[in-house]
Amino acid sequence: MLRHVISVVLVMLTSSFLSCSSYPPLATVPFVDLDRFVGDWYVIAHIPASVERSAHNAVESYALADDGSIETRYVFRDGGFDGEVVVLEPHGRVRDTASNAEWGMRFAWWWPFRLEYLVTYLDDAYETTIIGRSARDYVWVMSRSPAMSDERYAAMVLEVARQGYDASKLRRVPQRWPDPGHAAALERSPG
Q1: Any bridge partners for residue 119, and if so which?
Q2: Cα(6)–Cα(99) distance, rounded to whole angstroms?
Q3: How far apart are CA 72 and CA 82, in angstroms?
Q4: Which residues contact 106 (CB under 8 A, 6 or more apart)?
Q5: Do residues 121 and 142 lie in contact, with contact meaning Cβ atoms separated by under 8 Å?
Q6: Phi (first) and psi of residue 183, to 5 degrees
Q7: Are 169 and 140 in contact, with CB atoms under 8 Å apart?
Q8: Which of 102, 140, 165, 187 could form a disulfide with 96 if both were Cys (CB 3.0 to 4.6 A apart)?
Q9: Total-model pTM
């Protein structure tokens, strides 16, 4: 069993390193004001990781910890609006303190590694953002509101494509609110 786990981890690491090298670096925004960035972000669309492939009502929440790290809570319903509430709590750390736009996210199952987390788009009002990875394997289009106009969504799809992603892989995340069971998980602060 241990041999199998080690093999899987080595394959994943190798794939990650190889995929990163086949793309040019992904540009981040010049600066993120963390005090304005923290709070709730609704995931409007994504090229999802396997755990979130059937996410509904997805919300990522950030809070600054006393030690400067970023406490994170990603909450969604799995498989439908009445699906199980899933709560993920990765731990973020800003890697580039000059811009605050490059983070490392550590998930419990991926310890001791921090996965790349890049703020690649952020509007001036801090209402819409795109989070990406240099490997162009995952991307998240997020908004402060659960609804996004078709015109704004089309602009975000174009931005994702401009960044080098295959935009045809984007999945629009269904959002329907209010959702009392989901809201209870969000009310607890991240961490």
Answers
A1: 131
A2: 35
A3: 23
A4: 90, 91, 92, 93, 112, 113, 114, 115
A5: no
A6: -60, -35
A7: no
A8: 102
A9: 0.85
The per-residue pLDDT for range 87-124, each reduced to its tens digit, is 999 999 999 999 999 999 987 655 567 789 999 999 99
**What DSSP letter does each residue of the chain carry, written as one string?**
-HHHHHHHHHHHHHHHHHHHHTSPPPPPPS---HHHH-EEEEEEEEE--GGGTTEEEEEEEEEE-TTS-EEEEEEEEESSTTSEEEEE--EEEES-TTTS-EEEEE-GGGTT--EEEEEEEE-TTS-EEEEE-TTSS-EEEEESSS---HHHHHHHHHHHHHTT--GGG-EEPP--S--HHHHHHHHSPP-
Pairing of strands 55-64, 70-78: antiparallel
**pLDDT tens, residue by residue, 53-66:** 999 999 999 999 99
Say how many C-beta atoms besides its own lie within 10 A of residue 4's C-beta.
8
Q: Which of 104, 134, 106 is nearest to 120 (CA)?
A: 134
Residue recorded with tokens 């969000």: 186
- State pLDDT tens for residues 141-187: 999 999 999 999 999 999 999 999 999 999 999 999 999 887 777 66
Confidence band, pLDDT 50/70/90 cuts, at residue 191: low
